[in-house]
Sequence to fold (225 residues):
Amino acid sequence: MAETVTHFPTADVHQIELRLVGELERLPGVAAASVWLDQDGRLRDARVHLMPGAAPAIVINGASRVLHALAVPFDPRAIRTCPIALPDELATAMPGPNRSRFLLLQDLTLTRVGAHITCRIQLARDSTTAAGEASELDTSAGRARAAAKATLRAAENVTEGLALGLEAAVITSMFGRNYAVVSVEASVGRKVATLSGIVPVDPARAAEEATCLATLRAIDRWIGM
Fold:
């Protein structure tokens, strides 16, 4: 007898993915998470970005319990962990707004229209400048995503042959302060990588700026290769 496969509407699958991301990001040691499901509701890929010191095995066990609790079929091999390395200078100082070696943040503008916010980023590389923008819902999570996406689009516009995609962008609390954490998929030619960046949120400036700087930190070495 042929196996019956149930296909869910795309909107339902997306809602389950969002629920899973929310539950995974509540697990101890998790900074950010990204989840993709097949149309039959089975887990295709889960990437969990770990805070420094988190044990991958413990986090994977916790993620498995979340998937079981929400009745999502999965292969444990589809759950992947990505450690986030804290830059040395975070222990002693806040990085300046133009800390990135290859791409420099020149301008950040936020525009609100109704329930949405548009973030426009301008970057410089040597004597070349480029801008990128993105719109999201005007929420804390939406503003972080908009800042990260706009930064990636500007980086693509100023760097030939570079393709970038946002996996996750969140503001999370650890070590008694807030941090912007970003995960990016990058490719140049046949080279592909998953990159992450983290920058503390300075109370003197917007969290969107910290998200932009975390995005630049994630892709800085990749661009410099």
Summary: The helical segments are 10-24, 56-69, 140-158, 207-223. The radius of gyration is 18 Å. The first helix runs from residue 10 to 24. The mean pLDDT is 81.
